[in-house]
Every structure is written in structure tokens, then in C-alpha cells.
């Protein structure tokens, strides 16, 4: 071997990532279980620092001795964080260590790859591609899909909604569904697209969707937080909030699901602009929340059902989340989500928790579901789609199909269940 080649080989070996030496080469996601109250404090401390991103629960204040915490740790902090955990005897495991790969994978097939034709709804899409699809859909299927602009985001991006309505001479009530309140929950916009495509494709083919559309109009907002969604594609995959700037802080963004007028900014939300659950300056201070609230206020006579789609953790929730008080029709709502969860278990062998938000996860005031319910929409739900933490927000595109199919089954079950009553 010539000395030159030898040198090159040596150099390239030197460049091999040091995975085998125990040094992480990618950002990691840790699953952590605090047991003592000291460990809870330590964990709250770690997760409050700006270097890590808390995946579950949504805010450090929700961490208790029983919480399974999912924490995204950038490669530069993995050693400090894991050392700190070990020093304090906190048990943890690494659930993801190929995060970079997963993120890149999620963005694939985004372009007009001819091989991917027909797989559009089994891929994730950039904001621009989603906008284009919304427009195209309203043009190609103008007999049942209409584009409505309901407002604009903080950075002045359009909030496009699709109204699905079949003209059969019946005057109809309506169902509202929004997706993508939280930027990093990519499966959520994917589900809105999945649903619209399903409705258009299977109207007059599948009896469930036919009955649904024959009796109800559907207002679908595929991306409620376009600025945040865009930001997760370009800059920070883990972003949750919108991208509004506040006067008194350098921190960006408010949590749109804490910005509605339902026990606004009480326990479970934060007044600090740097926090992930920052409630905003006042109820509906954020243009995205305001646009949705305005639309629903002006359609409150017809909108009977409200759905907000999130991920992850596999839950079917209903009001209240802003108080432990029970909703007036609690039992009715419980029966609906119970049936939906049972059907998911039977048909897809997957487990969804169900119940009121406050009882099932945590107190979280200012949410859109509670606000819609208080407005007078008696059937109001938040879905938390797949998974339960295996991939979390980085759910691979090949799992979109199952995640959306089971969510669609839940949606059908609930809408058809309500249709029997009203
Ligand atoms: N994970 C969601 C959140 O933190 C839960 C939403 C449940 N509903 C609610 N109004 N908080 O926003
Ligand atoms: Zn969410």
C-alpha cells in the first residue's frame, strides 16, 4: 500500500463517528422515570433549561413522581444530562438515538417524485405543498370542497380552511376540525389531509362517510399554526408554539392551545413567554386563535361538533381540561369516546386512553376544545394520535397510514354516534 493511501485510510478511520466509544453522535430522546420528589425537582430543573426539549409532558410543572418523561436532548448536552441523571440515581433509557435520520426520513418524498405518486397521503408535506394541495383540491373537487380564508397568522401566512359540503338540498349542521395547532405534531396536519382525501374519494362509496356528508358539512383547517409548522421544516423540528414576538421578552411564540378564553392562564399554563405553555398576553391575543374563535362564533348556530387533532400519546379527550368540574353531558361524551377507543382496540389492536382532559392528562386551561364547548358546541374533542412515545413527534411516514386509519375510525364512530342523537 502506498503511504499516501495509507494516510487517507487513516484519516477516514479517524472520521468514523465515535458511537463505539460511547459518545453520542446524534441528539437523543430519553425516557426518564423520577421516583422521589428530589428526582422530580432535578428533572424539572434539567427540563427547564433551554438546551433540552420536553416532549412529554408539555411543561416541567406537570412532572410528578409518577410521570414518564420524554426528553429530547441535543447531542451537545447528552453527556451532561445523562451524567446528572446517573449521579442522582434517576433511571432512564435511550428511546431514540438516530433522531437526525428520522427527521430526514420524515422530509423525504416531499417533492414530486414519480415513484411516490399515489403515496401523497402517506408522506409528510411542507407548508407550501400543503397550501398547494388545498388550492388544487378546492379546484378539482369544487362540487364538494370550497376554500375559505379565515384569517392570517402572526407572520401573515394565510389560514386556509376547506369546507366539505355536498349539495343535496338538505340544510345541515356542521363539524369543525383543526389540525396542527402545535407545530411539531406532524401527524396532525397529515390526518386533516387524510380525512379530506377520504371524504372526497369515498363519498357515495363508503356508507359511513356518505351518511356523514349527507347530514353534516365539514370545516377542515389543515394547518392552524402555519408559522410554527414552517419553522419545524426549516429551523427547529421540535418547535411547538406559534411564532409571535412579545414586547417584554426575546422569547418567541405562544402556545395556541393555552390562548383561548377558558379559565385562561390559570394552573397548567404559563405567563412566561419563554415557556412552552405560554398563554399569550391575553385570551385570543394570537391571530391564529382569534381567527378560529371568530369563525366559530359566527357559525355557532350550525357547528355542533368540534375536533382538535394533536399528537402524541393516543388519547381521546373531551372537556374539561381547564377544571376538574365535569361537563354537563360528561357521561354522553364519555360513552362516545369509549366506543371509539373500543373499536380502535378491536380493529387496529391499539390502545387509546379516553376521558375528560383534566382527569386523563393534566389541567390545561385555555384550550380550544374547552372554549368551543363553553361557546355552546356540545360535542367537543381533542384527539392525541400515535404513538405513545416509541417515536413521539418523529413518527415515521410509513406509520401515517395506520395512525390516520384508526383516527378516522374514531372520528366516524363519534360523528355517527352524535348524528343518531341530533
Ligand atoms: N396535549 C394537549 C395540550 O397540552 C392536550 C390538549 C387537551 N385539551 C386541552 N384543552 N388542554 O395542549
Ligand atoms: Zn398538541
UniProtKB/TrEMBL annotation:
<comment type="similarity">
    <text>Belongs to the peptidase M14 family.</text>
</comment>
<dbReference type="GO" id="GO:0042730">
    <property type="term" value="P:fibrinolysis"/>
</dbReference>
<dbReference type="GO" id="GO:0004181">
    <property type="term" value="F:metallocarboxypeptidase activity"/>
</dbReference>
<dbReference type="GO" id="GO:0008270">
    <property type="term" value="F:zinc ion binding"/>
</dbReference>
<dbReference type="InterPro" id="IPR000834">
    <property type="entry name" value="Peptidase_M14"/>
</dbReference>
<keyword id="KW-0479">Metal-binding</keyword>
<dbReference type="Pfam" id="PF02244">
    <property type="entry name" value="Propep_M14"/>
</dbReference>
<feature type="signal peptide">
    <location>
        <begin position="1"/>
        <end position="22"/>
    </location>
</feature>
<dbReference type="InterPro" id="IPR003146">
    <property type="entry name" value="M14A_act_pep"/>
</dbReference>
<keyword id="KW-0378">Hydrolase</keyword>
<keyword id="KW-1015">Disulfide bond</keyword>
<keyword id="KW-0862">Zinc</keyword>
<feature type="domain" description="Peptidase M14">
    <location>
        <begin position="123"/>
        <end position="418"/>
    </location>
</feature>
<protein>
    <submittedName>
        <fullName>Carboxypeptidase B2</fullName>
    </submittedName>
</protein>
<dbReference type="InterPro" id="IPR033849">
    <property type="entry name" value="CPB2"/>
</dbReference>
<dbReference type="InterPro" id="IPR057247">
    <property type="entry name" value="CARBOXYPEPT_ZN_2"/>
</dbReference>
<dbReference type="Pfam" id="PF00246">
    <property type="entry name" value="Peptidase_M14"/>
</dbReference>
<keyword id="KW-0482">Metalloprotease</keyword>
<dbReference type="GO" id="GO:0006508">
    <property type="term" value="P:proteolysis"/>
</dbReference>
<keyword id="KW-0645">Protease</keyword>
<keyword id="KW-0732">Signal</keyword>
<dbReference type="GO" id="GO:0005615">
    <property type="term" value="C:extracellular space"/>
</dbReference>
<feature type="active site" description="Proton donor/acceptor">
    <location>
        <position position="384"/>
    </location>
</feature>
<dbReference type="InterPro" id="IPR036990">
    <property type="entry name" value="M14A-like_propep"/>
</dbReference>
<keyword id="KW-0121">Carboxypeptidase</keyword>
Amino acid at each position: 500500500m502506498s503511504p499516501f493511501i495509507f494516510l487517507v485510510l487513516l484519516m477516514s478511520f479517524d472520521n468514523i463517528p465515535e458511537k463505539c466509544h460511547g459518545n453520542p453522535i446524534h441528539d437523543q430522546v430519553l425516557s426518564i422515570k423520577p421516583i422521589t420528589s428530589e428526582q422530580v425537582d432535578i428533572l424539572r430543573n434539567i427540563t427547564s433549561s433551554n438546551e433540552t426539549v420536553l416532549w412529554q409532558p408539555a411543561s416541567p410543572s406537570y412532572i410528578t413522581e409518577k410521570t414518564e418523561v420524554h426528553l429530547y436532548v441535543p447531542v451537545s448536552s447528552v453527556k451532561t444530562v445523562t451524567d446528572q441523571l446517573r449521579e442522582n440515581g434517576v433511571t432512564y433509557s435511550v428511546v431514540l438515538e438516530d433522531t437526525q435520520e428520522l427527521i430526514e426520513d420524515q422530509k423525504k418524498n416531499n417533492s414530486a417524485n414519480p415513484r411516490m405518486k399515489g403515496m401523497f397521503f402517506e408522506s409528510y408535506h411542507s407548508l407550501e405543498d400543503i397550501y398547494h394541495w388545498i388550492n388544487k383540491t378546492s379546484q378539482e373537487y369544487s362540487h364538494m370542497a370550497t376554500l375559505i380564508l379565515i384569517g392570517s397568522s402572526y407572520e401573515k401566512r394565510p389560514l386556509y380552511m376547506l369546507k366539505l359540503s355536498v349539495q343535496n338540498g338538505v340544510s345541515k349542521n356542521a363539524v369543525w376540525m383543526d389540525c396542527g395547532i402545535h407545530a411539531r405534531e406532524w401527524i396532525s396536519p397529515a390526518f386533516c389531509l387524510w380525512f379530506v382525501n377520504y371524504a372526497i374519494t369515498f363519498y357515495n362509496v363508503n356508507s359511513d362517510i356518505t351518511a356523514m356528508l349527507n347530514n353534516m358539512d365539514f370545516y377542515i383547517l389543515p394547518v392552524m399554526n402555519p408559522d410554527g409548522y414552517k419553522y419545524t421544516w426549516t429551523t427547529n423540528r421540535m418547535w411547538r408554539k406559534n411564532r409571535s414576538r412579545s414586547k417584554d421578552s426575546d422569547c418567541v411564540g405562544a402556545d395556541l392551545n393555552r390562548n383561548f378564553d377558558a379559565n385562561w392562564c390559570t394552573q397548567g399554563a404559563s405567563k412566561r413567554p419563554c415557556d412552552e405553555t405560554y398563554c399569550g398576553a391575553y385570551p385570543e391575543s394570537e391571530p391564529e386563535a382569534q381567527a378560529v374563535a371568530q369563525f366559530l362564533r359566527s357559525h355557532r348556530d350550525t357547528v355542533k361538533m368540534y375536533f382538535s387533532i394533536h399528537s402524541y400519546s393516543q388519547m381521546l379527550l373531551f372537556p374539561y381540561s381547564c377544571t376538574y368540574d365535569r361537563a354537563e353531558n360528561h357521561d354522553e361524551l364519555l360513552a362516545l369516546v369509549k366506543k371509539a377507543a373500543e373499536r380502535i382496540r378491536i380493529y387496529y389492536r391499539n390502545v387509546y386512553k379516553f376521558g375528560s382532559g383534566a382527569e386523563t392528562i393534566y389541567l390545561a386551561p385555555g384550550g380550544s376544545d374547552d372554549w368551543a364547548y363553553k361557546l355552546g358546541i356540545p360535542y367537543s374533542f381533542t384527539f392525541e394520535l400515535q404513538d405513545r412515545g416509541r417515536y413521539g413527534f418523529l413518527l415515521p411516514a410509513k406509520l401515517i397510514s395506520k395512525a390516520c386509519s384508526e383516527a378516522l375510525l374514531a372520528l366516524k364512530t363519534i360523528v355517527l354516534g352524535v348524528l343518531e342523537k341530533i
